[in-house]
Amino acid sequence: MQMMDISQGLEKQPVVLHSQRALTSFQYIRDNEPSASEIRLENSSGCTCSQSSSCQSGGCPCATPVVWTQQGVQVAISVRHGAKSWTGYSDNDVPAGSFVCQYAGEILTNAVASSRLEEYDRSPESAGHALLVVREQLPSRNAYLRLNIDATRKGNVARFFSHSCDGGNLDLHLVRRTGALLPHVAMIASQDITAGSELTFKYGDPFDGKVVNYG
């Protein structure tokens, strides 16, 4: 049986592949990347402490999901091939409320996302595409920001998490780093997850994804 770290050392917590099959080709990335559509991403630490003594001593008060999204996968996850094709599993117990990872991939404009979806619909090989679309309600409550993250060609381990009609064991939370226009999608354990459990979440309506906003 093949056992390897599919993140190729990008994650502090190795993402282990348990399978005799080869993965479909994709590039592992730890954080979101702009596509050729030239969306600009922020370059922010997400920390507002600057050079405070608490930050320097390792006790940064900004240790929130905003910062977690910059730290990569936080739990032991393995990828296996089963009845649902490739699937991610938790290798350890994960308490409810724990950050698991962010959903990382290419950030697309709405036009490029629509084009990609049409392309995937035409290609049987793309039946397992991993293009996630969520909407964030803006403070005015009269408009939404649509976020398109495509982990099909470039993505992290979240691309292997499966759909669950009952809501799954992961919740999606939109978090925004300091000064950033675009949020990140943090995946948080919605319940206690026992070792060996499949990691799942509810996709929901692709244009009305249920999200929680951190101020």
From TrEMBL:
| Cellular component, GO annotation | chromosome
The record's listing under SMART domains reads: SET (SM00317)
Q: Name one Pfam family in it.
A: SET
> Where do the SET domain residues begin and end?
71-204
InterPro entries per the UniProt record, alphabetical: H3K9_Histone-Lys_N-MTase, SET_dom, SET_dom_sf
The subcellular location is: Chromosome
UniProtKB keywords: Chromosome, Metal-binding, Methyltransferase, S-adenosyl-L-methionine, Transferase, Zinc
A GO molecular function annotation here is: metal ion binding
Which GO BP terms, alphabetically? methylation
Protein's UniProt name: SET domain-containing protein
Q: Which organism is it from?
A: Symbiochloris irregularis
